[in-house]
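Much of what follows relies on a compact textual record of a protein's fold. With that in mind, consider the following protein and its fold in token form.
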Amino acid sequence: NIICSIVFGDRFDYEDKKFLDLIDWIEENNRLQSSIQTQLYNFFPTVMDYLPGPHQKMIKNFEKVDKFTTEIVLEHQKTLDPTCPRDFIDSFLNKMEQEKGNHDSKFTVETLSMTTLDLFLAGTGTTSITLRFAVQILHKYPEIVGNGNKQF
């Protein structure tokens, strides 16, 4: 939710169906990435597009996540106040407006959607993996938890 606040400008309720779906799609894709079909897809996407397998589910999940992000970007465009950016998306939209006449500009809605998604995935993935490893280490070495009086 901290990453959501920075990127999307809003926190989601932990019971929010859309947010829970988003997390489910991301976690499922993390699991599917290790399948042999998905790895083959990375090397032979044209051939693998026609074959069934877990890579097809991963593509569908990615499309859902992309749609989720794109909807938030479109909502931000409608409610943008250039004098008061709420988050990363608003700042990017302001830069898009500044670059409007520049045909070589990389500040496009498509770039914004992909960058927003990258920031969200990187932020949530890194944080969750770090916390999982920390819990595993504390579980493996419980004496670390019991040494609250020791100073390092």
